[in-house]
């Protein structure tokens, strides 16, 4: 390989334009990703899917296969180990695997290696971090909620719940009924984020997230397409009457009294709420759950606690079905019911037998979140490729093909960090500040024209420019101390045979969790060994892979 010392000596920033060499290096990759709905094929040496022994998902497979046979559909081919590895890391840990993690799994020979991988991921510290992040976004969004909402405290509280394997019904109970300091009890921040307008947003968010029911339309009128009435919305809203938030101050490090935290409490009040009807009259609603259950109208009742008990009541199927549907959508790209928070007779599920069975098993497990993840990730539908069989319908209605999914902003950011080691190039405090600043910019760029938050990478011009030329990408490709490229170059220099091939393999594993196929490897190694600036070739190749559809999509 030409001038290996030069790799370490010349650390130039990423150029704004790409060379013709870059176009040649990535021609095969671009061609593979050009067709909508397709993902690039892994290397020819990709390991086939192992024969999956019956076990934790046998009941799922039986129902799936029966539905496919009845409908006369052919499921996609099994996903390769490389495809499954990357998919399950993103879904469980919220990031792609590192080179070391990818190599370790791909060298494993055991037939049950995939189930063992899931078990290990569920014990990884990134699991509670990922699901804490997911539910922080669902509960309060990504925007700045002001000082009354302590995002870090809520995220920290959620991480502790998932790390402790708390049952989902207990987590929901605490979120709905939490009171006290928003700094000491992070769950309080969910309610504080939605108190405006007589807790109307809190009413809507609670029923959608925990019950899978969209009743916000009935705030002003009866629902036009289902049985929900205006009184149903205000019956839930009445549970939140009497909530009071107060800012508390404390002496800070400068000796001045300043804001410290917000306290939330339930004050005794009348139980009813008033609302305007469309006919101009004023309606009155007392606390009443969606299934018609009522509570005492006395002022000494903690109405939120009663609501939390009703939502998490094992006798009700609403919460279990809502969570199972949302989790299935998280792992498959869509739920049995879509939108995931609009369940009911007006919106019939696909594969209703599977939804019913999973919800029943989830309840029987004691609302064990990890067990639900094990079932879903072990089911045959999760092990399928995103390649549609020849002649298959464009629409995947029975989960016979794995859907392509764009990463969320958080997944994309953390995957970039995992692939590049850019956050390690510098001291930890500076890296944390850079991460926070970049993620704020990242999230802002993901907004749509209506000012609402986007949930995944859609390839808009601002997003693409930030990916291609942003500060994080420049740091990733600079070869600075601690970055992936620096380590990869140093390791390649220590190889006695084929250092160029070793380096190309490392770059592909880092970005795509797979080895290059023969054509990709031959092109990359040829230009790496013959171009006068080897480092620039490696930078260009890594840049192209990190900006490819194969990197950005979950497949």
From TrEMBL:
<dbReference type="Pfam" id="PF07587">
    <property type="entry name" value="PSD1"/>
</dbReference>
<feature type="signal peptide">
    <location>
        <begin position="1"/>
        <end position="36"/>
    </location>
</feature>
<feature type="domain" description="DUF1553">
    <location>
        <begin position="303"/>
        <end position="527"/>
    </location>
</feature>
<feature type="region of interest" description="Disordered">
    <location>
        <begin position="36"/>
        <end position="55"/>
    </location>
</feature>
<keyword id="KW-0732">Signal</keyword>
<dbReference type="InterPro" id="IPR022655">
    <property type="entry name" value="DUF1553"/>
</dbReference>
<feature type="domain" description="DUF1549">
    <location>
        <begin position="60"/>
        <end position="243"/>
    </location>
</feature>
<protein>
    <recommendedName>
        <fullName>Cytochrome c domain-containing protein</fullName>
    </recommendedName>
</protein>
<dbReference type="Pfam" id="PF07583">
    <property type="entry name" value="PSCyt2"/>
</dbReference>
<dbReference type="InterPro" id="IPR011444">
    <property type="entry name" value="DUF1549"/>
</dbReference>
């Amino acid at each position: 390989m030409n001038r290996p010392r030069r790799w370490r000596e010349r650390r130039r920033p990423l150029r704004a334009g790409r060379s013709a060499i870059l176009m040649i290096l990535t021609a095969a990759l671009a061609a593979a990703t050009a067709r909508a709905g397709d993902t690039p094929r892994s290397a020819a040496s990709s390991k086939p899917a192992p024969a999956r022994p019956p076990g934790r998902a046998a009941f799922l497979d039986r129902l799936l296969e029966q539905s496919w046979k009845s409908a006369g559909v052919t499921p996609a081919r099994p996903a390769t180990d490389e495809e499954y590895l990357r998919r399950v890391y993103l879904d469980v840990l919220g990031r792609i695997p590192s080179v070391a993690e990818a190599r370790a799994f791909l060298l494993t020979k055991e037939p049950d290696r995939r189930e063992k991988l899931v078990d290990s991921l569920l014990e990884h510290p990134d699991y509670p971090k990922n699901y804490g992040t997911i539910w922080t976004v669902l509960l309060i969004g990504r925007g700045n909620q002001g000082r009354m909402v302590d995002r870090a405290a809520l995220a920290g509280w959620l991480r502790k719940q998932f790390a402790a394997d708390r049952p989902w019904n207990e987590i929901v109970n605490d979120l709905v009924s939490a009171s006290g300091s928003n700094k000491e009890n992070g769950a309080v921040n969910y309610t504080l984020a939605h108190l405006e307008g007589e807790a109307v947003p809190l009413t809507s968010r609670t029923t959608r997230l925990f019950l899978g029911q969209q009743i916000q339309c009935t705030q002003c009128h009866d629902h036009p397409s289902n049985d929900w009435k205006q009184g149903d919305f205000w019956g839930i809203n009445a549970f939140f009457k009497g909530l009071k938030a107060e800012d508390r101050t404390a002496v800070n490090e400068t000796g001045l009294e300043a804001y410290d935290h917000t306290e939330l409490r339930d004050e005794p009040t009348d139980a009813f709420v008033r609302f305007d009807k469309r006919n101009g009259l004023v309606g009155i609603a007392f606390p009443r759950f969606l299934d018609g259950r009522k509570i005492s109208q006395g002022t000494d009742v903690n109405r939120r606690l009663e609501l939390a008990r009703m939502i998490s009541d094992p006798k009700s199927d609403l919460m279990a079905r809502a969570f199972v549907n949302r989790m299935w959508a998280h792992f498959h790209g869509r739920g049995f019911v879509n939108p995931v928070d609009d369940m009911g007779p007006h919106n019939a599920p696909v594969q209703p037998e599977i939804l019913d069975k999973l919800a029943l098993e989830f309840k029987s497990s004691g609302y064990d979140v990890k067990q639900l993840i094990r079932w879903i990730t072990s089911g045959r539908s999760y092990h399928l490729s995103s390649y549609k069989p020849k002649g298959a319908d464009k629409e995947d209605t029975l989960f016979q093909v794995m859907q392509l999914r764009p990463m969320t902003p958080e997944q994309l950011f953390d995957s970039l960090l995992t692939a590049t080691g850019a956050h390690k190039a510098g001291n930890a405090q500076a890296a944390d500040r850079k991460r926070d600043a970049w993620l704020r910019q990242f999230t802002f760029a993901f907004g749509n024209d209506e000012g609402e938050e986007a949930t995944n990478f859609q390839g808009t011009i601002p997003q693409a420019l930030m990916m291609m030329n942003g500060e994080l990408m420049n740091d990733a490709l600079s070869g600075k101390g601690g970055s992936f490229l620096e380590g990869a170059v140093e390791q390649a220099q220590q190889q006695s045979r084929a250092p160029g091939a070793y380096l190309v393999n490392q770059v592909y594993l880092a970005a795509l969790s797979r080895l290059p196929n023969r054509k990709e490897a031959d092109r990359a190694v040829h230009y790496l060994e013959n171009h006068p600036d080897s480092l620039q070739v490696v930078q260009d190749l890594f840049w192209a892979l990190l900006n490819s559809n194969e990197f950005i999509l979950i497949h």
